[in-house]
Design brief:
mainly beta, 25-stranded antiparallel β-sheet, five-stranded mixed β-sheet, 51% strand
C-alpha cells in the first residue's frame, strides 16, 4: 500500500490544481462515531482548539487530491492518505467560513471517504464504513476529544439525517420507522425519502407538490380546492404528519381540529415517508402511512442562499435562507428563512399570496447537550376555486376549457399559521441518546366563497346552482415526544433499544359555519357554458348567519412505546415493538337557527329566533389499548449490501362513539399489515433499491343492528355489532430505486401496484374499491445528469421525469334539482365515468453561471397532456391537471 504525506507549499498546490467547476453528486457522510484509541489529554485539548476554530477557505472544485492539498495549505493540516483512495474522485470545492471539521466534511461529501484526527494537526483519510451495514447512533466525534458535541452532520448540520448539500437522491439514514437513524436497508418497512436535492431540482415548493412526487402516494383535490388536497397510500388516507420525527400532527381532520398542511418546503431539509401501518410510534389510525418533515437546522459555517423565480400564470417567488455561527466560539448557531410568493393559476380569477418567516437558534449547552428553539409564521391570502367542475347528469364530460374557473371575485381563504418548536438532545456516553421534541402549532383560517354544484341536464344545460358558505375557526395542536435510544452488547452482538412516550392534543373549539339567511331560497342558477363571475346575480350575500358552532372540539392521544432490535446471530435481526395508547375525544355541536321566521327547539319545543341555539349535540369518549400481538419483524443480511425482511404491524381505529347491545363501547377496528421484501444498498449506500409486497386487512367494523338510538342524549349511539363479515383488504407491490447510478447520474424511480376492496354481505360496497378515484398502477420517475469534465459541459445539468397512472373512475346516482326547493325534479340517473390512463412528462435544464449562481428552467407537463387530476361525481369535484408550465429560477449560494 502506497501512502503519501501531503503537506506542501502553495506553489505546489497551484501546480496540481485543475481548473473548472463540477457540481458532482454528493452523498451524506454522517456514519457514526470515529475514534478507536485515546490520545493524550494535552494533545486532545490542542486538537479540540484547532478543530473548533473557524477560518476562510477558498478551495475550487476539481480533483479531490488537489483539493486536499489546497485545504491542507490553508488550514495547516497534514493529511495521511493512500493516494489510491482519491484517484478519480472529485469534489465540489469549498468557499466561505467554516470550522476545520465542517469544511473537511463538506470537501469529502460524496467521495465515500471520511476522516479522523490522529494528532493535533494530522488527519487520516480513510474509507467510509459501509452505509448498508452501519447503524448511525449519533453524530461524528473527534478522536481523543473529551467532548461529544455534534460536529459532523452533513454540510455542518447537527442532524445526521440531513441531506442539504449532499447532491444525492437518497439518504444514508432515516429515522421515521425506528426513532434512531438506520439505513434504508436495515429498516424492515416501506420507507422513502425526498431529499433536498430533489426538492430544489424538481422545484417542490409546497407540501402538495412534494407529495405528488413521493413514492406510492396519490393526491386527490379536496372539496375546498387544491388548498386542501388529500393524500392516499395503499388505498387509505394519510392522516398524520411528524416534524423532525416527533409526535404526529393531524392533517386529515381539517373540518375539525386538524391542520391544513399548507407548508412551504423552503423550511425543510427533506421528507421521509412510511407507507402502511405505524401504530407503534403513532397510535390509532388508518394504515395509510405517515410523513415526517425534517426542518433545516443551523449550520456550523456561514451560508446564504438566495433564489428568485418567475413562472407561468404570473407565478413569482423569492426566498432567502441565511445560517451560520452567531457567537460563543461557534456554540451558538442560527438560521433564518424568508419566503414570498404571489401566483395566479391556470384557471381564471383564482389567486394566492404567501409570506413565510422562520427563525431557529441552536446552542451547545454542554459538550454533550444541544438545545434548539424555533418559530415560524405563515400568512396566506387566497382567492380559491372551490368545488371543482360538474359534469352532465349521465357523467359525460362537459368539455369545458381548462382555464374555466367557476369561482367568484369575492371568494377568500385566509390562513395564519404560527408554529413554535424546540428540541433537547442529550448524549449519555458514546452509545445512548435522550431526545425531547416539542411542537405547537396554531392555524387560524377563514374562508368565504361561492361554489357551483349540480349535474348539468343533457337537454337544457341547466342544473348547477351557486351555494355560498363561510367558515372561521382555529386549530391548535401540541405534540411532544420523549425518546431514549441506544445500543448495548449482549450475546456478543450489538443490540438496539428505543423506549419513549408521546402526547398529542388538538383543539378546534370555536369553529363556526355560516350560510345565507333562509338559504333554501338563496341558491342561484349558474350557466356553466356562459359563466361570468362578475354577474351581479352572483354577488356575495350580505346576510350570512351562523348555523353550526363547536364550543368544544378536542382530541387527545398519548402513549408509551418500546422497540428492541435483537441480534442473536449476526446476519439475523429480530425487532419487537409494544405500545400502550390512550385516546379521548370531546365535542359539542350547537345548531343555530338560520331562518328569519325562527326555529323550534328540538328538546323543549320552544321557539328560537334567528341566530339562537335550538339544539345541542354532545359527543365524547375515552379509551385505552395495549397493542397485542406486538409489532415484530425479521431482517436477514444475505450479503453486506443485500437484506431480506418480513414484518407485522397491528392496526387500531377507534369507534367508541358506538355502543353494543350490552351498553358498552364496541371494540376498535383491528387489523394487520403484513409485508415482506428485499433491499439493496449499492455504491457505498449511494444507491438504494427496494422490492416489497404487502397485505393489509381490517375487520371489526361497527354495524347498526336495529333502529338507531342514543341512550345518553347524543353522546353515544346504539346498538351496533362488530361480529360481521365486513372487511377491508389492500394488497400490492412497491418497487423503488433511488440514488446515484453512475457518477453524476441520479435517479428516483418507483412503481406501485395496489388492489383494494371492501367485502361482506352487509356491505353496501361489497367487492368495490375502497376509493375508486385512486389508480391501481402508479409510476414515478425523476432523473438528472451532471455533466462531467473540466470544460463548459461541467456547468450543465439536465433532468426529466414521468408521472404515470392507470385509470380511475367514479360511479353513483344524480338527479336534476329544483333551484327553489332543492328537490329532485325527476328520477335519479345512474352514472359512471373514468379518467383513463395517462402520463405527464417534465424536464429541467440547469446552467451554472459561476461558482455561486445557477440558472434553471423547469417545464412541467412538457407534452401538454389534457386530463382530469381528480374525478368525483357529476355534481362537482372534477379538477383538470395543470397544463404545460414554465418556471425560470436564479439561485445563488454564498
Amino acid at each position: 500500500m502506497r501512502r503519501t504525506a501531503l503537506n506542501v507549499s502553495l506553489a505546489s498546490v497551484l501546480e496540481q490544481m485543475v481548473q473548472g467547476c463540477a457540481k458532482g453528486a454528493l452523498v451524506a457522510v454522517a456514519a457514526g462515531a470515529f475514534a478507536l484509541s485515546v490520545a493524550p489529554v494535552a494533545s486532545a485539548q490542542e486538537a479540540r482548539a484547532q478543530q473548533g476554530q473557524t477560518r476562510d477557505f477558498d478551495v475550487p472544485a476539481g480533483p479531490l487530491s488537489a483539493a486536499l492539498l489546497r485545504f491542507g495549505a490553508q488550514s495547516g493540516l497534514q493529511f495521511n492518505v493512500d493516494s489510491r483512495l482519491t484517484d478519480g474522485k472529485r469534489t465540489e470545492g469549498l468557499r466561505g467560513t467554516y470550522s476545520i471539521e465542517g469544511g473537511l466534511t463538506q470537501l469529502l461529501a460524496g467521495s465515500g471517504l471520511t476522516f479522523r484526527f490522529a494528532g493535533p494537526r494530522t488527519v487520516v483519510i480513510e474509507v467510509l464504513p459501509d452505509a448498508g451495514s452501519t447503524r448511525m447512533l449519533g453524530p461524528l466525534r473527534i478522536e481523543g476529544d473529551g467532548s461529544s458535541r455534534a460536529v459532523a452532520g452533513n454540510n455542518g448540520s447537527t442532524d445526521v439525517t440531513a441531506t442539504e448539500g449532499s447532491g444525492s437522491y437518497t439518504s444514508d439514514a432515516l429515522s421515521i420507522a425506528s426513532k434512531m437513524p438506520l439505513s434504508i436497508k436495515e429498516t424492515p418497512q416501506s420507507v422513502s425519502v425526498v431529499t433536498h436535492e430533489r426538492i430544489v431540482e424538481q422545484n417542490l415548493t409546497d407540501f402538495s407538490a412534494l407529495m405528488a412526487q413521493s413514492t406510492g402516494v396519490s393526491t386527490i383535490t379536496g372539496s375546498n380546492g387544491p388548498l386542501e388536497a388529500e393524500f392516499y397510500s395503499r388505498g387509505f388516507r394519510i392522516q398524520r404528519l411528524q416534524s423532525d420525527g416527533g409526535a404526529p400532527l393531524d392533517i386529515a381532520s381539517t373540518t375539525k381540529w386538524g391542520m391544513v398542511p399548507q407548508l412551504d418546503m423552503a423550511l425543510y431539509d427533506h421528507a421521509e415517508i412510511l407507507r402502511g401501518a405505524d401504530g407503534l410510534f403513532n397510535g390509532y389510525g388508518d394504515p395509510g402511512g405517515v410523513i415526517s418533515l425534517t426542518r433545516k437546522r443551523p449550520l456550523d459555517h456561514r451560508q446564504v442562499v438566495a433564489e428568485v423565480q418567475a413562472g407561468s400564470w404570473s407565478n413569482y417567488r423569492a426566498t432567502l435562507d441565511a445560517t451560520g455561527p452567531l457567537g460563543l466560539d461557534g456554540r451558538l448557531r442560527g438560521r433564518g428563512i424568508l419566503v414570498w410568493q404571489d401566483q395566479d393559476y391556470f384557471y381564471d380569477v383564482a389567486h394566492n399570496e404567501k409570506k413565510v418567516a422562520n427563525g431557529v437558534l441552536e446552542y451547545d449547552l454542554t459538550s454533550s447537550t444541544v438545545v434548539s428553539l424555533g418559530v415560524s409564521r405563515t400568512w396566506q391570502d387566497a382567492l380559491p376555486f372551490a368545488g371543482g367542475l360538474p359534469r352532465y347528469i349521465d357523467g359525460s364530460d362537459l368539455r369545458l376549457s381548462r382555464d374555466t374557473c367557476l369561482c367568484f371575485p369575492w371568494n377568500s381563504y385566509d390562513f395564519d399559521t404560527t408554529e413554535f418548536y424546540g428540541m433537547v438532545e442529550q448524549e449519555l456516553g458514546p452509545n445512548w441518546n435522550l431526545k425531547l421534541n416539542v411542537t405547537r402549532t396554531k392555524q387560524e383560517r377563514t374562508w368565504h366563497y361561492g361554489m357551483v354544484q349540480g349535474a348539468v341536464d343533457l337537454v337544457t344545460g341547466e342544473g348547477p346552482l351557486q351555494q355560498q358558505l363561510k367558515e372561521d375557526g382555529a386549530s391548535t395542536q401540541t405534540a411532544a415526544d420523549f425518546t431514549l435510544s441506544g445500543s448495548f452488547e449482549l450475546f456478543g452482538h450489538e443490540q438496539l433499544l428505543v423506549v419513549g412516550a408521546n402526547y398529542m392534543e388538538a383543539d378546534g373549539a370555536g369553529l363556526t359555519r355560516y350560510i345565507p339567511v333562509d338559504y333554501e331560497s338563496s341558491d342561484t342558477p349558474v350557466n356553466v357554458f356562459g359563466f361570468d363571475p362578475s354577474d351581479p346575480a352572483y354577488a356575495a350575500a350580505g346576510n350570512l348567519t351562523p348555523y353550526q358552532r363547536y364550543p368544544t372540539y378536542r382530541s387527545r392521544q398519548s402513549g408509551a412505546y418500546a422497540n428492541l432490535r435483537l441480534t442473536f446471530w449476526e446476519p439475523l435481526h429480530l425487532n419487537i415493538g409494544l405500545r400502550y395508547s390512550t385516546m379521548k375525544q370531546q365535542e359539542v355541536l350547537q345548531s343555530l337557527c338560520e331562518f328569519s321566521t325562527g326555529c323550534l327547539d328540538w328538546t323543549t319545543f320552544e321557539p328560537r329566533e334567528l341566530g339562537q341555539v335550538y339544539d345541542t349535540y354532545p359527543f365524547g369518549y375515552s379509551t385505552n389499548n395495549f397493542s397485542w400481538p406486538p409489532t415484530f419483524s425479521l431482517v436477514y443480511d444475505v450479503a453486506d449490501d443485500v437484506s431480506v425482511y418480513a414484518s407485522y404491524s397491528d392496526i387500531y381505529v377507534e369507534q367508541s362513539l358506538m355502543l353494543g347491545h350490552d351498553g358498552k363501547a364496541v371494540d376498535p377496528v383491528t387489523g394487520s399489515n403484513i409485508e415482506a421484501g428485499i433491499k439493496w444498498a449499492a455504491r457505498d449506500g449511494r444507491l438504494n433499491a427496494t422490492l416489497s409486497a404487502y397485505r393489509i386487512e381490517q375487520e371489526g367494523f361497527a354495524y347498526l343492528d336495529g333502529d338507531l338510538t342514543s341512550p345518553d342524549g347524543g353522546t353515544h349511539f346504539c346498538c351496533y355489532v362488530t361480529d360481521t363479515d365486513l372487511q377491508r383488504v389492500s394488497r400490492g407491490v412497491d418497487v423503488e430505486v433511488t440514488g446515484e447510478i453512475l457518477p453524476g447520474w441520479q435517479v428516483a424511480a418507483s412503481y406501485t401496484r395496489n388492489s383494494n376492496e371492501e367485502t361482506g354481505e352487509l356491505s353496501f360496497s361489497n367487492g368495490l374499491p375502497l376509493q375508486s378515484r385512486l389508480p391501481k398502477h402508479l409510476f414515478k420517475l425523476w432523473t438528472s445528469y451532471q455533466f462531467q469534465g473540466d470544460g463548459w459541459q461541467s456547468r450543465l445539468n439536465i433532468g426529466g421525469g414521468i408521472n404515470g397512472q392507470s385509470r380511475s373512475y367514479y360511479a353513483g346516482l344524480a338527479c336534476p334539482v329544483d333551484a327553489v326547493t332543492g328537490e329532485c325534479t325527476s328520477a335519479a340517473t345512474a352514472f359512471e365515468f373514468e379518467q383513463g390512463s395517462y402520463a405527464v412528462v417534465s424536464a429541467r435544464a440547469g446552467w451554472k453561471l459561476d461558482d455561486r449562481w445557477t440558472l434553471a428552467l423547469n417545464i412541467n407537463n412538457l407534452l401538454d397532456r389534457t386530463y382530469y387530476q381528480t374525478v368525483t361525481n357529476s355534481s362537482s369535484g372534477n379538477w383538470y391537471g395543470e397544463p404545460r408550465s414554465y418556471t425560470l429560477s436564479l439561485r445563488g449560494q454564498f
